[in-house]
């Protein structure tokens, strides 16, 4: 799609500063996203939560996140990543302060949802900007390195939070997070360039620009990637950000400190994984290796590792964190779907395409997080033991993942990227 107003690529120096400004916000968004896994033992005792409540509380972030994705995409295309991200981050500040002062489960849930709303632009805003400001290979690299930054945030939500908890308490930690979010807002306001709306050169281009989400919903490649985004990508994040912690403590029998150490190792693994993807994806792209091929060969590995986690729950208790890290690592192949979907659309639709796919992913996270908690409580109510209940709940997730991968393979011949 050619537009009458050109969009020059950013210089290397400008690109680095823009990346760092956006990455600081995304770092905080994943830290806030993942902190519930580390805080789950404390919140369970202090607030009297059960597995269902814990799943809903963690999923509340993703529910708030998901509610904004469709309007977010239109706003990003119209107003640009700078203005939109700043407006949303202001709500994240309020969400962190509300969480710090909450005195009930419903108060925590409402604050958690507000945090999800406020942080919902932290990845989509930069990816929309990168689609216009960076070339295709740089987009793949920066997508992976944004996810690497997110893994760093997840890393900081584990052992560092565990160490700071006895000193400050979880309420003070959320006040501190609100302050850091405000500092990142200053960075974005200072370093990110203004958004120049493109003027369509033809009537057909104007239709694409003004067509809302109709072009996205009609795109076959989008639907080709939807089930694996919902179950495999969403499920990976759901386990990484919540259920890895309870699995370590309740299934493997680890202490809270041991579990926090295990979560630290899992998130360090993901940091290194996305750093590696950022190094190699530009070369893979230049050699014509499409993300579809990598997902086709890589995703079955994660399904196999999940089988190992379920079947070997007792025998591999001492190695549980390693198995969970392997599951997240092998699931990272599906993270390549996000930039692939973005590149399947013209730049004028990038915000809507990326936000629509992000809605798929985060809806999957919310559903998987909550449904695993519901399933665990259900099987416990039927008299099953804790370990067996977790195994049965995770088996349900595995079955859905296998079906979604089967659809991915089946739809491939007739749903190639346009």
Beta-strand segment tally: 0
How far is the first residue's CA from the last residue's CA? Answer: 13 Å
Backbone structural class: mainly alpha
Major sheet characteristics: none
Q: List the secondary-structure elements in sequence, H or E.
A: HHHHHHHHHHHHHHHHH
Strand content: under 5%
Total helices: the number is 17
Oligomer: single chain
Helix % is over 70%
- Indicate the mean pLDDT: 87
- Form type: globular
Q: Poorly predicted ranges (pLDDT <50, ≥5 residues)?
A: 1-6, 201-208, 413-418
CA-based gyration radius: 21 Å
Write the topology of this structure.
Elements: H1 12-47, H2 51-79, H3 81-101, H4 105-118, H5 124-133, H6 136-156, H7 159-168, H8 170-191, H9 203-210, H10 214-217, H11 220-251, H12 256-286, H13 291-311, H14 320-331, H15 337-343, H16 350-381, H17 386-411
Characteristics:
80% helix, mainly alpha, 418 residues, 17 helices
Written account of the structure:
This protein is globular. The longest helix is centred in the first third of the chain and has 36 residues, at 12-47. It has 17 helices and no strands. With 418 residues, it is mostly helical. 80% of the residues lie in helices and 0% in strands.
